[in-house]
Design goal:
57 residues
Length: 57
């Protein structure tokens, strides 16, 4: 396997891990009924758990 293939494989694993971490975070926030703090248009805002998307779009 070449270097490019190894890098692509590692990148795919990292992305999959980040997606899983996001899914777990959303699940946790909904369970605890806790807002998620995010940055939108340069401002810090709290997003209610029922408004959080269940997966990365």
């Amino acid at each position: 396997m070449g270097t490019k293939e190894q890098l692509k494989e590692e990148r795919d694993k990292i992305v999959k891990g980040l997606e899983e971490a996001y899914r777990r975070l959303v699940e946790y926030k909904k369970e605890k009924k806790s807002p998620m703090i995010v940055v939108r248009n340069g401002k810090i805002v709290a997003v209610e758990p029922n408004e959080i998307l269940p997966n990365i779009v």
